[in-house]
Amino acid sequence: MALRRRTLIGSALGAALPGGAAGQSNIDWRGIPRLMQGPVLGPCGPDEASIWTRSSGPFATAIEFAPDPGFSGSRRTTPRTARRGEDFVLVHRLEGLQPATTYHYRVLVDGRPNPDDAGHEPFRLTTAPVLPSRFRLAFGSCARRARYPVQPIWRAIEAARPDLFVWAGDAVYADTPEPEILAEEYRRQRDLPEIRRFMATTPQLAIWDDHDYGLNDHDRRHPGKVEALNTFRRYWPNPELGVQNALGAFFRWSYGGVDFFFLDVRFHRDPNDQPDGPSKTMLGAVQRRWLLDGLAASRATFKVLVSGSGWNDSKPEGADSWASYTFERDLILNEITRRGVTGVLLLSGDTHYGELNCLPWSERGGYDLYELVSSPLAQDTVDLYLAARPILRVRQAFSGDVNFGLLDFDLAPPDPTVGLELRDEGGHAVWPPVQLRASELTPGRKTWPQKIDALSRERWNRAQAGRAYY
After folding, report:
1. CDD domains, alphabetically (predicted)?
2. What is the pTM for the complete model shown?
3. What's the pLDDT at 12?
4. HSE-up (13 A, CA, CB side) for residue 144
């Protein structure tokens, strides 16, 4: 009897082991092939698109796509195997697409549709138009998953139906020099149920700021910045970053007749408290030259400069904004004037309150430059602007709620337009939008007196007379 029992135990152990005994078991020793995060839709051009995925192991992964949601006549990308060294992340390139066309897609893991997408697929994407067109961009910054594990604002952003979304820095709050922790924060943010469909169906483009680069207010001295850049590159399906002779998270993208310049304000940044002057830089010489040459060569009606740090002078010198780098900032804006670059718009984040400001470069021979600031998406709001230096605000700073920015471009009219708007968590406009015409963003045009609201005008006049702004 004892012998019989030992035989049964030995048979059971043998069936539980891999190798030859595994053939007698229903266990799949690889686990369930599936996605852990994603899909995330990257930038879409007129004839191509990129999709980011992270799988549960070294499985062959591909994208099946077709104009038909039933996948009649579908095509597939070449299956590629996710690797452990790349955290099982892949970026898939869909090519040979038609412009301004909606496609439906699903992710195939190990040859089968991702099992966890049942009931959610097919996802959709729309390619970019070839000609200048009408489209909507949404953007925001500062999303702190640890403090805000529920982020309802994404429902409002999705309901606004933007054609693309821009992360203007602090997409996660890693606050660590460790690339493994930074990667973990990206994964936690993408696990939010309220963001998943939006990131799968709306093209995402991203820059970083301090909290997704390293530590608070971190600069070029970050000892792990190359590893942080590799993690950033791995987790965002951006266009190619940097240039041959300069690393960084900066790049250029065009959509619908508008050129976007995404700036890296961390990798080459001198310390904030270094005295300002010709040698102090936020961008580094190579990135600054790349920006200015790109602006001069651009034939787009509008050129949008995206910076994680605010462009205005409200913060004191030594603080974490362009106010501590005014020599370099003014050099850039003066070169825009000197080279006759038209149609420049400024976007930024970081501040934890929304803003719409004007840098009155019409007083320096150029034209008034408008800065729309969206912050935060999911983080505490603050009213530090009450103690800030007075600046030319076109709309009053908004700290009543989390927020996101909208830019509505219409390139069809003879004089193209862009509308600037800020919305709260419920999707409601926090103040009346401002509309700009392309002809107003040309040398010699002073437009802010026609754009500013009554309260902002009153407070600006008061500050100009030497009295308190508030």
Report:
1. MPP_PhoD
2. 0.94
3. 43
4. 14
